[in-house]
Every structure is written in C-alpha cells, then in structure tokens.
Amino acid sequence: MKKISLAGLILFVFILANYRISNGCTNFLITKGASVTGSTMITYAADSHTLYGELYFQPAQDHPAGAMRDIYEWDTGKFLGQIPQPAHTYSVIGNMNEFQLAIGETTFGGRSELSSQTGAIMDYGSLIYVTLQRAKTAREAIEVMTNLVDEFGYYSSGESFSIADPEEVWILELIGKGEGEKGAVWVAVKVPEGYISGHANQARITTFPLSDKENCVYSDDVISFAREKGWYNGTNKDFSFSDVYAPVDFGAARFCDARVWAGFNKVAKGMEQYVGYAKGLIEHGENNFASNRLPLWVKPEKKLSVQDVMEMMRDHFEGTELDMTQDIGAGPYQLPYRWRGLTWEVDSTEYCNERAISTQQTGFSFVAECRDWLPDPVGGILWFGVDDAYSTCYVPMYCGITEIPECFAVGNGDMLTYSETSAFWAFNWVSNFAYLRYSDMITDVQKVQNQLENKFVSFVPAIDKAATDLFHSEGETQARKFITEYSVNEANNMTQRWKELGQYLLVKYMDGNIKREKDGKFERTETGLPPGPLHPGYPEWWYKAIVNSTGEHFKVIGGAGH
C-alpha cells in the first residue's frame, strides 16, 4: 500500500464528502479599480444539495524527486491517476493560497460531445487545488492549468474559472476536445481595471482580441478546432467562444446568466435593457448567435467595498420582474425559495422556478479579497460562510493561517451526521427554522448577521497592522500564529453566537406565535410569567387567495357579512 501524506488524505476526505458541487455556482469578479480599497475580489457560491460546508487546509510541503500526487475526481471521489509533484507546494486555505492567489469556478457544460475524454486525469476541481499549490499569480495559474490539461487530459465538461491575485482578475473558460483527442480548447481574458464581471454556469466569453497578449491569451487551436468540427465557418475576428462551444438557450439565460444580471443590477446602471434576456427571451443575429446577451463586464456606479460584494451574493431578484418574494409561491411570509425541481408541469405545459444567486442548498460561499499593500500571508482574506449566502455570516479567514477552526473542520459532522460544534449545522438550524415564518424571522437573522460582519470589517485594519508589525519585527511565523488565533477564535465564537440565535428564534416564534419583547428582552409579568403572545395571523392577500381557491368551504354560517 502506498503511503499517503496528511495533506493528500485531508484533500481526499474533503472530495469524498463534498462531491457534486458543479452545475450550481455563482462567481463575481472585482478589479482593483472597482473596489474601495484597491483590493481585487472574487466570489464563489458552491451550491449542491449534497455538499457539506467545510474549510480545509493543505500545508506547504517539500517533495522528494519522483514523488507523485494522486488525482481524484472532485465530483465523485473516483481515482483518476497520478501526476508528478513539484519540489515544493504552497499552503492553501480553502480556495486561496498563501500568495493571495484565489480561484473559483462555475460549470457550463457546453457541447455534450466534448464532455468525455478517455484516459484524461485532470478534472476541474483538481485543476483548481493542484494549481493553488503550484502558482503564485493569476497569469501563472492560467499557464499551470492549461499545461496540466495538455499533458494529462481534461476529464470534465466546460468550465469557467475566476482567477485573482492582488493585481489582476481573469476569467478562463475551457472545454475538453472529446473522445479521440487530448486536452482542451480555451480562452482567458483579463477584466479591465475599474470593471466587474461574473459567471453562473454559462460560458460568458464571446468574441475576444486575437492580438493582445497582455489582456487575452488562448489555445492555438481554439478557432481551428471548431472549424474542423464544422461548428464555425466565419472570420476569426467574429469567432465567439461561448456561442460556438456553449450556445445559449432558455435555461442558460433564465437559470444562469440571470444571476449575473441580478448581481450587476445591484451595483450598475443600465441593466434594465437586459431584462428580456434574463427572462429567457433570446434574440438571434449573425451566425445565429444570441444578439442581446449581457456584457462580459460592467462598470459599477460606485467603487465597491467587501460588504457591497457580499451583498451581491445575497439576492433573490428583489425589486425586479423575477422577484421571488412577490408571487404566490412565496406563501404568506414571502419565502424566496422553491423546493426542487427547477421545472414542473401543469396540464402538459412546462413551467419553471427562478434560480437565484442565494439558494437554500449552498454548502459554502466566500468572498476572496487580495490586497497588494500587505505581506502575502496577511494580505489575503477568505471571507468564508456556510449554508445559504443570504443568511450566512462571512468571517475573515486570513490566507496565512495554519489551523482550521473546529466549526469548519473537515470531519466535524457531515450531511448525515449532526455536530454540535459544526458551523454548517448551526447555520442550517437557523435558516431552516426561519423558512417557516421568513418575513419576520429574517429580520432577526440579519440583525445578528450585520452586527457580526460589521465587527469583523471594523477590526480588520487593526488585525492587519498588528500582524504586519509582527511580520516585520518577529518574523512570518509569529505573524501567522497571530492571524491563525484571530481567525480561529472569531469563527468559533461566531458559530456559538449563531447557536444562540437559533435558540432565540425558537423561543420567540414557537407554535406560530410571537413572544412580546421590550428593550431587547422577552417580557414577563409581575409574577414572572410570560404575557400572552402576539397572534399576527396571515396577511389579508393570503386570506383572499384561500377564499378564491376554496369558495365557501371555510365560510362561517351566520357570521359577519350575512
């Protein structure tokens, strides 16, 4: 039996526990010129009904000559093969390494005939985590990722990657070449300074500059391969990666790009012109390509803070034509969730639920913030949260930490094993209870969420300074120890506070009533007993909907109005 390193074992356990996260993710990308502080940022929501939210750690490690790394498919844990290890690999916390390189993804699938490649080893998840161990910058990451698929083959379907370092933000879109071929065709573009971008399970790069290697790189055969397959016969300058390799249909617009539109709509002007496209109404132009698609990037109305970017991840199309809180499916308490499936039929006609950025099945999400004015171990922060992005709390995990908080630890519970010390279970306890009386309970949840996140954001400058002072005066080891203690304590304390929130909600909203409160405390009578609770009932429109549906079934004989 081969000896497995601790880092390899941790990663393998994580993969087994968290398969099937593809086909349901959302990313936004923020350039330095679009952020308040001059940081770069990318976001990621890993949405899967079987994903258990954990944070994992891969330590830096030296490897002897000839050492090999096992590759397991991210979605299934299936062993795919081995690749050589470099002499040294970097430490990685979640999706960010010690040099502030961060990578996220969304799966777009694309042409089904390109989805399998016999003998291939590198699936999309392995590409991310192997690259984080080997690259220091976004440009280097693109080179590592594309070289890996060239050498070892690409095992997955089409994928969009968000790649950020403290200076630049890139989108890499890649799809395999199918059976009988090896590797992938791909294109990567740098998001222009002052702009933001996004992708959500639909390829987004259309035409791209062919002679601007500073801002765009691509595989030599990205166009010629499509010509050989008979998928494109136009000019090179008009070639659209997305329209050729992942054509847009109703689902791609309504279930995928609509999420990008919703995020853009929160921070940029002019998005109303794309409402029709977000609703799945696709107009076709030359080459039968969609002509009314969202732009790849937009300029935000104002520069964005990390909390603004968190709010981009918290959306149910509120205030738009797709608002999930306004139709009858939201019920009497404006619940912005619809239990799956995504589509359904009535009288042989197919209908759909909306697919929002914020969704109940999220395992974990993050905002990765990269800051070039600080030492790397201190400069990178993975603002990490578990469960639904709308009701999660993002806690700062510095990229240089060397220990995982117990609340996020791999193996601390799983999807079928409740753990009292797990953040995933604490947050699911709160959110699932809140679904019962959402419009009331979510205000209580957001109050605590805001208190904690405001505290974290306000403390960060002081933590930065103290850690940087230690870095320069006592060395990197002491600085890492300091930020590790801070991140671990804040995450575990946050989880305890969330458990207390769950207890509070149970007491307050038990049995459909609402306990009376005064000055932040539950009221008691002079004898110490609780006064009679409030019985708010349902909103009037809900009662009318019941009558419209049931006629006189509930009518009181001889009652009011007779």
UniProtKB/TrEMBL annotation:
Q: Has UniProt tagged this entry with the keyword Amino-acid biosynthesis?
A: no
Going by the UniProt record, its keywords in alphabetical order are: Dipeptidase, Hydrolase, Protease
The UniProt catalytic activity note for this protein reads: an L-aminoacyl-L-amino acid + H2O = 2 an L-alpha-amino acid
This entry's Enzyme Commission designation comes to: 3.4.-.-
- Which enzyme class? hydrolase
Q: Which Pfam families match?
A: Peptidase_C69 (PF03577)
Q: Superkingdom of this entry's organism?
A: Bacteria
- Which BP terms in the Gene Ontology apply to this protein? proteolysis
Q: Name one GO molecular function term.
A: cysteine-type exopeptidase activity
Family (UniProt): Belongs to the peptidase C69 family.
Protein name, UniProt field: Dipeptidase
Tell me which species this is from: Maribellus comscasis
Source species taxonomy: Bacteria, Pseudomonadati, Bacteroidota, Bacteroidia, Marinilabiliales
